[in-house]
Amino acid sequence: MASFYRNLLDQTSLAKAAAIEASRSALSSKKTEKRARSSSASDNSDEDDNKHLKTDKDLANQARATGKMVVLNDDEQIVDKRQLLSPGLNVTKKQIISSKSSHSTDSRTNYYNKKASEDKYSSKNHDEMKRRERQSRELEQQILETQQKKEAEEKAREEQILKQFVARKNDEQAISDAKARYLARKKKAQI
């Protein structure tokens, strides 16, 4: 029995080892293909980068070819790059200054500008708040008045019903009339 399990373990370990070796060989072949592709792509990208990275001297030569006057300094750098611009609308990205001191002053000015705008509109807000409070008080007063009217009407109705009920019960004339009718019926029954 022990030899059976030993053979089973050996077979599974050999199968595992074969799977690992196959995956390693597949990965290594993929890596070599990627390297070959990237090296050919990097050669092309280097050529493209060289096309995009023109020196100031090249830019000046191109500008002179189009008829513009461009001045170079001793280090062969363009003195005034505005000379390269064409007439009309030349829109470029603004440069972002990332110094801590300018950031802190910007945040301070933003804070004070915001505070000033809040003060500017605070009177409007205050007036609007007063108007809302006044409207809410008027609304509450109207609600209270309608509740009081309803209560008063209901009390009046109850009193009227009670008076009618009491009036029916305690009417002496009605009692004497009822007694007379009773006596009349009793006489008829005796005759």
What does this structure look like?
The chain is an all-alpha fold and 191 residues long. Among the domains are: 1-53; 54-84, no CATH class. The chain is built from four helices and no strands. The mean pLDDT is 77.
- The general outline is elongated
Rg, alpha carbons: 53 Å
Structural class: mainly alpha
Low-confidence stretches: none
The portion of residues assigned to helices is: over 70%
Largest sheet: none
Strand content: under 5%
Q: Tally the helices: what do you get?
A: 4
Taking all residues together, what is the mean pLDDT?
77
**Run of helices and strands:** HHHH
| Termini gap | 130 Å
Protein name: 14342_t:CDS:1
Biased composition (Basic and acidic residues): 49-59, 115-140, 147-158
Organism: Racocetra fulgida
Region (Disordered): 22-158
Record the SSE blueprint.
Blueprint lengths: L1 H51 L3 H10 L34 H70 L2 H19 L1
Main traits of this protein?
0% strand; 14342_t:CDS:1; 191 residues; elongated; mainly alpha; single chain; NS_splicing_regulatory_protein
